[in-house]
Amino acid sequence: MVAAYTWHPGTGRVVSRWPVPVAMAPDELLSTWLVRVALSQGTDPLVLASHLWPRWRVWTIDFDRGISDERISRLARDSGIEAGKLSMASLLPIASAIGLESGAASAIWHWILALGSRNRKRHGGLQYCSLCLATDAQPYFRLQWRLAWHTCCAVHHVGLRDRCCHCQLPIEPNRLCAFDTMSTCSTCKRDLRQGVMLPASKAALAFQERADRVVITGSGSYGVHQLQVKEWFHLARYFLMLLRCAARRQISCLGKCLAGLVPGSCYLRPPITGLGFEMLPTSERSSFLESVGVLMQAGPEQLRSAAVANSLKDTSLRQGWRSLPPCIDDIVREMPQLMRSRNARKNSDPAPVSRQTVLYKWARLQRKMRRIS
Fold first, then answer.
1. Closest Cα partner for 89 from 77, 106, 75?
2. Strand 219-222 to strand 158-159: parallel, antiparallel, or no bridges (unpaired)?
3. Are the CB atoms for 151 and 132 separated by under 8 Å?
4. Which of 81, 94, 207, 265 is most exposed, with minimal Cβ within 10 Å?
């Protein structure tokens, strides 16, 4: 079985300055390829990186988001792989295609999983499929496993994991040692290929494949509207925002409106941590993407009808967004405006903190403690 898309073709045999030349596999992620290079030479990734770029702590950052021309030229010279091919294995081409401005310094890039780095330790940001690693001649990590809309393996139709199947800690190839393999967990040293994989969500896989086609073909549709890549992902991001708002206030008019459009209301389970979408575990992202896929398929006319039926005001669909997708902005302008009374007084007695807020704070505290330890 093969995937229906290829993010980059990899390289053939290479001639490098290293004792053991290491070609790049199709769709291989740049940073994990460099880890594989280090292990092939019988050394730690930290040692190899220090040799390539002295006084630069490369493993403390997310260098899949791009590195300087000077540094990538040094890597190209030693590896025997052209700088352009190395750049294709980074996240920059995909991030640029979906709307990220070149050189953006934001801590989190939309639709790109965040590593949550603290020194060399990571909170997450990398997924894997045990079956893919088991069938590789030499196990390697794919570039698409860093994409936030990917929650399934399109080859084996199983859900991806973002934690070790044994110790449940993040996947950190950069912390492997010289005698480890790419399929080894850096923490518990057990084999990631031995994990039991769960069947993929058909709805989440359908959205994932649709989003991939949008990136590859350069356009996507929403009802009768034909959208460019950036517009399509902006619209998907908008629906994510609506779903998260509805999850926090399930009995609101917005919640009832979306419940009518999304059968089963699987989105009405707010994330435990309340973190941004790119920092959520795979299972929670999968649930949201299932519902986003349904809303994208429904089209603007069904959204307009549901909004009118539930008496939504313009603020309910805008939720503070200044720049709405044009096809959504047309609907919002048709909704009645919310009239506020100037004499309305705020309650002097603060309301008790909700249970969900307490759970958010507790989950965030636990996450901080795990990163420190």
1. 75
2. unpaired
3. no
4. 265
